[in-house]
Design a protein that fits this description.
It is a single chain. By secondary structure, the chain is mostly helical. The protein has one domain (about 5-470). The chain has 20 helices and no strands. The chain has helices at about 5-25, 30-45, 50-85, 90-95, 105-120, 125-140, 145-165, 170-180, 180-215, 245-270, 275-295, 300-320, 325-330, 335-340, 350-365, 370-380, 390-405, 410-425, 435-440, 445-470. Helix 4 packs across helix 10 (about 245-270), helix 7 (about 145-165) packs parallel to helix 20 and helix 18 (about 410-425) runs antiparallel to helix 20. The radius of gyration is 23 Å and the shape is globular. The two termini are about 25 Å apart.
Length: about 475
């Protein structure tokens, strides 16, 4: 029958329910998570002072677990800043603009370019680059700005971010919460990301084309001036300060692409995953940042390098600041409780979540279909805060719980929760998460969210059904 459940187990369940409730109500969960850690610590230690210490220790534990992810994203954003300000980013993407000849090509080329860049640079920095270079070209051939924004959202914040195969920030969070290797989550997510991506983007494109043909959606007027928007952009691209010649920019663009291609090759040849793969990308990005900064700014290169790194770290901690308290709480469901407070669970326990999963298996008739639907719902709920990342630890934790109950499928359930959370909250449905793409395209974020709603919901339904067969 498994380990006997004690007060710690039930308090953990209570706070999970509270966290989910706050997310549904679109309220911040930080205070609830801190309160949960404190109460668990108080029950585990029986000491007020040790409980206060435990709250801080849980944050340290979470930061240690997340530090590699925070660091690599910060460095990549810093690198993206220097590439944007020197014009190298534009040099890298401009050849793609030549492929755009029709509205259909504009949608797919913009989307695929956004997806590829987002794999390496993350979607937030990629939005400014794609918007600046491809938006005016797409509008000129007849694709409305709302269509460009949809393509950037669905391919970047949807497909690229939900898989996150290069930087591996998302799968690390969910894998840690589920207590399985990062590689397992990534492998399990491949068919789900493909199904979700294909269904969503094809549905969005067909709906867009239908509205264009019926006249319900009119093409925008082409922007004035050159192929790169400047003052027409509601979202300002950083001013360029570079002494690099056009030839130097082209050479550096080619070198950067080559270096990242070599990184990807090394991942396959050397079988690098998780922290090792993240470190390889992060180290490469750091050297690119140093090289470009020194070449572009010359005498001021040393100071500028530090400035770019600071900008990157500001972005990294702004994104992951809300994640740390949530992760601190959910890590207590597995190994963190014992690591921080010692042996406080009953003999034979393998962690709060595992114990709850075994108990659930003996009391509730769970099956694969119910588990898949529940994980999609949990993922979608955690995405309602507009982050996408803040709640995927909960998805991983519940996947662990349900897999223990049905006896299999932990990697698939974890990946399903991750895909649902990031598609809803990462920047495709929640209006305040859509602001960067909406602003750079000059469209209303609420209109963009409404346009994305039906394709994303259809994609989630189909992906959930596919997941049932994969469990």
């Amino acid at each position: 029958m498994g380990v006997e459940l004690i007060g710690l187990h039930w308090v953990y369940v209570l706070f999970v329910a509270l966290i989910v409730g706050f997310m549904i109500a679109r309220k911040d969960t930080t205070i609830v998570c801190i309160a949960g850690v404190f109460v668990l610590a108080l029950m585990a230690t029986g000491s007020l002072s040790h409980s206060v210490i435990g709250v801080f220790s849980s944050f340290i534990y979470a930061i240690k677990e997340l530090l590699g992810t925070i660091l690599v994203i910060s460095i990549i954003v810093g690198m993206s800043q220097v590439l944007t300000k020197t014009g190298i980013n534009e040099t890298m993407i401009t050849p793609v603009a030549r492929l755009i000849r029709t509205p259909a090509l504009a949608f797919w080329v913009t989307g695929i370019a956004m997806m590829i860049i987002s794999w390496f640079f993350w979607p937030s920095p990629a939005v400014a680059l794609i918007g600046a270079v491809l938006l005016p070209v797409a509008v000129r051939v007849g694709l409305p700005a709302i269509g460009v924004a949809m393509a950037m959202n669905l391919f970047g914040h949807g497909i690229a971010l939900s898989g996150d195969y290069i930087i591996q920030g998302a799968p690390k969070l969910t894998a840690d919460a589920a207590g399985i290797p990062v590689g397992d989550v990534m492998s399990a997510s491949v068919p789900l990301v493909i199904v979700m991506g294909v269904v969503t983007t094809v549905t969005a494109f067909l709906m867009l084309r239908k509205d264009l043909k019926s006249g319900k959606l009119a093409a925008d007027k082409p922007p004035k001036g050159s192929t790169v928007l400047n003052d027409d952009l509601p979202f300002r691209i950083p001013a360029r300060h570079s002494s690099l010649t056009r030839g130097a920019k082209r050479l550096l663009a080619a070198v950067i692409l080559l270096l990242f291609a070599l990184d990807v090759a090394a991942m396959f040849v050397l079988k690098l995953q998780g922290g090792d793969a993240t470190a390889l990308i992060g180290g490469t990005a750091l050297f690119i940042l140093l090289l470009v900064s020194l070449l572009a700014h010359r005498a001021k290169g040393l100071e500028k390098t530090t400035g770019y790194l600071v900008e990157g770290f500001q972005f990294g901690f702004r994104v992951f600041g809300p994640v740390i308290p949530i992760a601190a709480f959910f890590y207590l469901g597995d190994a963190a409780l014992t690591d921080i407070f010692g042996k406080v669970l009953p003999q034979g326990s393998t962690g709060i979540v595992n114990d709850l999963g075994v108990a659930l298996a003996h009391s509730v008739p769970l099956n694969k279909a119910v588990s898949a639907v529940t994980l999609t719902a949990v993922g979608a709920i955690t995405g309602l805060d507009g982050s996408g990342f803040s709640g995927i630890s909960l998805a991983g934790s519940i996947a662990h719980l349900f897999a223990a109950a049905i006896g299999s499928g932990i990697a698939t359930l974890t990946a399903l929760g991750q895909v649902a959370a990031i598609w809803v909250g990462g920047g495709t449905l929640i209006p305040w998460a859509l602001i960067p793409a909406a602003a750079i395209c000059g469209v209303d974020p609420f209109d963009l969210a409404r346009r994305n709603l039906k394709p994303v919901l259809i994609g989630l339904v189909v992906t959930t059904i596919v997941a049932m067969f994969l469990l």
